[in-house]
Amino acid sequence: MGKKVKKDEKPPPDDVFDALLVESRQAATVVLMLNSPEEDVQSKACEAIYKFVDKCEENKKLLLDLNAMDPLLRLMQGEDHTVRRHATMALGVMCQHPEVRKCLRKKDTAIPALIHLLQPEVGDLVVNEFAALAVSYMATEFSSKVTIFDNGGIEPLVKLLSSVDPDVQKNSIEALAQMALDYQARGSVREYDGFPPILEMLKSEYAIIQKLALLALDRLMQDVENRSHLREMEGISKLLDFLAKPEWSDHHVMVIMVIASLLEDFESLEHMKESGGLKKLVALITDQPAPEEEAKSKGDKKGGSRAGKKSAVVKDPKGKKGGDDEENKETAQGGDSIIPTLPDVKMCAAKAIARCARNSENRKMLHEQEAEKMLIILLTHESPDVQACASQAIGVMCENLSCQDSVREWEGLPPLVKLLATDNTEVKEAVTLALANLTSSNIPNCQEIVNLNGLGPLISALSDKREEVVANAACVLTNMAQDEALRAEAQNKSVVFGLIEPLGSSNTNVQSKAALAVSAFACDADSRAELRENDGLEPLVMLLHSGNDEVRRNAAWAVTVAGVDEPTATEICNLGGLEILQQIQLSSTRKSPFIDAALERLLDSNLSAKYALTGNLSQMNLIENGFYDPGQLKPGTKFRTLEDYLEEPLNDKRPVFFITAKQEVSREPIEKTDESDYKSESKIVSGKASKATKQDSKSKSKAQREKEEKQREEELAAQLQREQEAIAEQVQKPLEPPFDSNFVKFLEDVTDKIMPLVSTKEQIVALAQFVSEKMGGAIEKGQLPYFGWELPLSQVRFDGKTNVVPIGKVKMGIHTHRALLFKALADRLSIGCTLTRGQYNRAWNEVLVAEENEEAGAPKYPPSPFIVDLIHEPGRLLPVDSHEAVAYQKI
Q1: Which of 156, 308, 423, 497 stands 20 to 30 A from 45 (CA)?
Q2: Under a CB-based contact definition with an 8 Å cutoff, are residues 260 and 348 in contact?
Q3: Sheet hosting strand 846-853, strand order edge to edge
């Protein structure tokens, strides 16, 4: 039976499908509906997808897996307004998922289509809103930023900033904030005049829009031209006005960040100075009234209560008269009561000052505006973060010498020294950094810190767990060491011992600063002895292996200073320092003048090593007791001690010649006595004592006899113990070289006979003849190979059962022996003389002698260098450039 038709209703055409209502709970079915030719079905399917994907992230991924992106992109570019709106809404929300964004990046038409929808004439506010949302999500990847910029996406985004819809504004400014991370986009925002609407957004009633506007400004200020453009638009004043409103305190940190970027330009800082903005900023941060407000407040007080009532009545934005709340607000902003800024704002302001002060011109201008006062006030804040940032800013400011004096004059040192005792490592690091810069080339600041009892905490900071604290503390102590009195006071507090631990640090900065501090304090014998006795030389020598140039340079300088005395230089050589320096000197990349100076200092302090390695001793190198010549060593060879050569058995190698003038101390041999002898002696003594007691039994009591016997036994035990200790001491004592009585006699003879001579030339000639006489006399030319010196020398070695031969026992000697003896005696007579080693046992001495002027009958200056002949014609002086001198040096 067919459907009844009403009287006035026309029957539907036969080729039209009746309306069908479909309910679906499967996302796949709705995705299929996107391909329907009916616009109403497409619209409802897009709306359902929007609601579905807005629920959770998993739904977005599910729609992506169902291949919903292609139909949504197609519908988003369709002609039907409703379908386009719902498709844009769905796609905009889906772009929050990273996999969706990855899929859209592979489609060349996706981003251009979204940018097309940003045009106000293309779609309504909803389309603009979700298109901007999609663009903001896509702009999080750098590759998408490039595509958005190339397709002209900056201009429509800037236009949408002036939209009446706050959601459109929010998404647009968020997209621009993301795009501002690209340097090309920053300039485009300025070209399309985007700064006025962004500054206008600072007045928005929505906090999120204000936050995003400030974020965009902060990123846009990375461009120099943008900073100049904002300065021309009076943007600094607007930012300061924003900062002065306590109701917007949640965003004050970001305002300070923008101002910090602006202050990098000297022009911006000068503009703030001229407009009074800098002082206003300082007043806001330190919770003090600005100068003009303070003057106004004083004027209001003088004007009486009537004027005060008039100033308390203001109108709110709606045109109504404000009551008590408005009066309180105005009083808080411009009166005597100042609402304190948040700690985060103070912290960010201190960072801004530090960032601005990196430029020398900016530091000078900040100093003129007394920015140090603000930072000193922030040092007393209760927040550790504020204290740390203020200290760090002071450290940067004090790279200017004028700022160093200002901080001291404005009582900035007491709070800094007080903060050294804090447990907060970040604060301590910033404080020590500030003190390091404050004491750089400023002795008054160093003295003030010591007067404030800051020396002890600084030395204690050398053992801090934070490596930066240790490095900064070492730097402060190095600066203090420039003053002798302060250096002595620090040394009395064991600063050298405190520096040993940082030398072993793994941090190169700590190593560098610690080594430099050691070089500053190791300039006296007591400090060097303390460093040596506490095993501080070993880590110092190990730093010479460092691959860091600064560490290696400072360690070499510390070795140069510490190696000024022979014990320290010898210990450094024993630790391998000499070999390390020689290896570095052979390197083309690691060698430096500091390495050369350290090597020279070690060799000057250890003349035995210098002569063995370099084959040359200058006039300033005076041979003293303990000098020995082991022969020429190759570069990089380890230099052995005299004890090592003494312990060697007799061999056929070259002997080691030793020089000493110490008097021999007679030692009587200690006879070892067995304990049994002492026991028998004690029995004899006790027996004699018993006989004596029998005879005197009538006069002495039994208690007295026992007491005397006990006393005698104790004396015998004490004597036995002393003799055993003496024997042990004699056994443990290191080997000593044989005594050289002949050399002592040589010294006595030259002192009596040669020293009284009037002229230096006469002394040289007489000394040369004396040496030649003691070493076998003159040798005729051509007869040197027949001069038998080896056998007598071998006999001396055999008699002494050692390879170490005292130079005085050499009866037959040639060039190398005579030159060494001449140098040793000449140094005792204060005759300037060098010692140079040649090849094949050749050696010679060079002296400076003033030639006599025959006409004037007086010495002719400057003196000329001569080589002393000790072989053929002893006492003859050979000019260094003569053929005779050249022949004397060669075979």
Answers
A1: 156
A2: yes
A3: 846-853, 858-868, 877-879
Give the HSE-up count for residue 166: Cα atoms under 13 Å, Cβ half-sphere: 11
834 vs 504: CA distance, rounded Å: 40
Q: What angle do CA 504, 508, 513 make, to 5 degrees?
A: 80
The token duo for 94 is 């889906």
Cα(72)–Cα(63) distance, integer angstroms: 11
Nearest CA among 575, 640, 585 for reference residue 609: 640
Pure H helices in 637-759: 642-647, 675-695, 702-732, 741-753
pTM of the model: 0.72
Of 441, 444, 446, 421, residue with least CA distance to 431? 421
Query: What is the spatial distance between Cα 368 and Cα 354, in angstroms, rounded to a whole number?
Result: 15
- CA 76 from chain centre, in angstroms, equals 58
CA 533 to each of CA 329, 517, 543, 566, 869: distance values in angstroms, whole numbers, following the listed order: 70, 18, 19, 14, 46
> Alpha helices, DSSP H only, in 304-370?
305-311, 324-334, 343-356, 360-368
Q: Which helix (H) or strand (E) holds 596?
A: helix 593-605
Residue 502's contacts (CB-CB under 8 Å, 6 or more residues apart) are 462, 470, 471, 474, 510, 511, 513, 514
Give first-to-last CA distance, the chain, whole Å. 143
Burial of 215 (0-12, 13-18, 19+ CB in 10 A): buried
In terms of Cα–Cα distance, which of 401, 377, 354, 218 is closest to 286? 377
- Cβ partners under 8 Å of residue 375, min gap 6: 350, 353, 390, 393, 394, 397, 412
Q: Can you give the C-alpha Rg of the chain in angstroms?
A: 47
**Cβ pair 378, 286 in contact under 8 A:** yes
Interatomic CA distance for residues 141 and 135, integer angstroms: 11
Q: Residue 216 has which token pair?
A: 């965009």
pLDDT digits (tens, 9 = 90+) for 659-673: 988 755 444 444 444
Contacts of 784 by beta carbon, 8 Å cutoff, 6+ apart: 814, 871
Question: Cβ neighbours of residue 585 under 8 Å, at least 6 residues apart?
Answer: 591, 595, 596, 599
Is the pLDDT at 18 greater than 70, yes or no?
no
Q: Report the DSSP pairing between strands 656-659 and 804-806.
A: parallel
